[in-house]
Amino acid sequence: MVDEPVEVIRSAALAGIPHGFLGRRGGVSEGLVAGLDMGSRGMEPGDPRMAPIAENRRRGVEAVLPEARLVTVYQIHSPDCVIAAEWDEAERPRADALVTDRPGLLLGVLTADCAPVLLADRSAGVVGAAHAGWRGAWGGVLEAVVEAMEALGAHREDIAAAIGPAIALESYEVDDPFRERFTQSDGRFFAPGRAGHWYFDLEGYAEARLEAMGVGAIDALGLDTYSDEERFFSYRRATHRGEADYGRQISLIGLPL
């Protein structure tokens, strides 16, 4: 796996915008997180365990927008979105989406089953990225990122959005209390499972939230992180196996210098 090139999955909806959904192919991490693991796990930049992560991030940037400055946030499964700036790793704001109109900043969100959503308004020169797990999507993170893009001059009818690799309906079993959080009209995103359980369509739910806002174009890639172990990390897969750790993949978007 370490000798593979970085795999960059792109969306036709974002053609012409530097972007990519990266999986686990093409990195230098080893063990349970072998491949292009991007998760710092709270380690300080000088920690020797950060060396493979730093190399993986360098490779990711080089594959999507060379010479750009990678900018991420401290993700907390919130509905919060911020305007990106060149903050240090230790000073990242707590949020789950970020936007920019500045060329040379490469926005990144980390996932390991949650849905990464990349967005762009080409004519306005504004891009955004969101980490949309069920909690964030349910809480309004997608609405927040669109509104933040509009504050920078974007128009939602001109925004194109792509939903990257995420856990698929057939892999995402939830229980009755989870289902009860959602409205009756959201029932279309649930399929019945064993007694007291359901299967949840996170990608479909995120797509519907974007559609309801009037986003101009939406591309749901339909890639399942749980079932495709060779390409993607998965928190739930690692949990089901009782593994001590799991990798994180990154999704990137920016404006060229």
Protein described:
This protein has helices spanning 51-64, 134-139, 141-151, 176-180, 202-213, 235-240, and strands spanning 8-9, 19-22, 69-71, 81-83, 97-100, 105-111, 115-121, 126-132, 160-163, 173-175, 190-192, 197-200, 217-220, 249-254. It has 257 residues and is of the alpha+beta class. The protein has one domain (8-166, 222-254): CNF1/YfiH-like putative cysteine hydrolases. The chain has a six-stranded mixed β-sheet. A five-stranded mixed β-sheet has the order 1-2-14-6-3, with helices on one face. Strands 10-12-11 form a three-stranded antiparallel β-sheet. The radius of gyration is 17 Å and the shape is globular.
Task: Quickly list its features.
single chain; 257 residues; alpha+beta; CNF1/YfiH-like putative cysteine hydrolases; six-stranded mixed β-sheet; 24% strand
* CATH third-tier fold name: CNF1/YfiH-like putative cysteine hydrolases
- The total count of strands amounts to 14
**SSE pattern, N- to C-terminal:** EEHEEEEEEHHEEHEEHEHE
Based on the structure, what is the oligomeric state of the protein chains? single chain
Task: Describe the structure in brief.
With 257 residues, this protein is an alpha+beta fold.
